[in-house]
Input
Amino acid sequence: MKNYLLLVIILTLLCSCQHSNYPYTEVESKAFLNDITKNARASITDLTEVKKQPADLFGIITRYPLSKKNQDEFNKNKGTIVAKDDDISDFATYTFKSYELTNEKNEKLKFIDNGRAVYLQKLALWDYDKVLSQNLGIEIKLNHKFNTLKGYIDMEFEMPDGTKKETKIPVDISVMDKIPE
Output
């Protein structure tokens, strides 16, 4: 009985400390999630843009404005920021809730879970309407190739403080597309 009680106490303490290293407020979490869900879109990959051949990979691309601290570092270091794994995007996770995707042959395509992480991948920095932003991406592998891909993806993004936001991303892409800036 003592061992059981000790185990319960330790587990309670561990669970109560699990978000103690998350340095962002609920307001910051909500603002971040609003930005990434507002800007999320489906896109072909760089390789598909070059090859213009049927592909079984595509991505969800999004962005959010850099913090004042990161903008200052970018300006001070002449266009670079040191990756420290403490940016708000490093804490975000996602879940695919539902999706429906079809190719030009009207085949229903399915995601292939190839051991991908459920975290957002940092991509290039970009200036959108004079606001320096961090681009983020999620690579998705499908069970069949496509020339055109249509449908939707419902996803939920979550932060360690429990803040969540769902979004429905329309998918209407072609291997002939250009990747938008």
Summary: Helices lie at 2-16, 26-39, 46-51, 68-76. The CA atoms of residues 17 and 150 lie 43 Å apart. DSSP finds four helices and eight strands in the chain.
